[in-house]
Amino acid sequence: MATKAFSLQDGNLNKTTIKSARAREYIDIDLLFAERPSGDIYKKKEAAAVKQAVKNLLLTSETEKPFNPTYGANLNSALFDLDTNYEPKTISDLIANAISIYEPRANVLSVTVNTIPERNELRATIEFEVINIGEVVTLELNLARLR
Asked: 3-state SS string over 92-135?
């Protein structure tokens, strides 16, 4: 891991004048829970970990996460009202807002939403940059109401 040093030129000798920051490695467990030959489970690293976290955030409805009732993008509720209350701009704002609040590792670059009201379906393409490594990731998300 790389260490960067920043110098503070404040003129006060009683304070520390050098701060350091380390680049963090993003690691999450793979939610498929596939077993490795060693008996452990697979891990997702860097961009794959952030992509999985963003997808889970967007698929989570509000009040679904215990002790954090506002967590999630609440996109499932939009599926029932696509023809009346939700326009693509409103849904893209919901997505961008949820990512900016709950996923500090991602910087949203663009969100494109296509709705199909007669089938209660929406398709979103989210393009974001992983903060630590600068990699641009595209996530395609399809949501449809089951009958």
From this structure: HHHHHHHHHHHCCCEEEEEEEEEEEHHHCEEEEEEEEEECCCCC
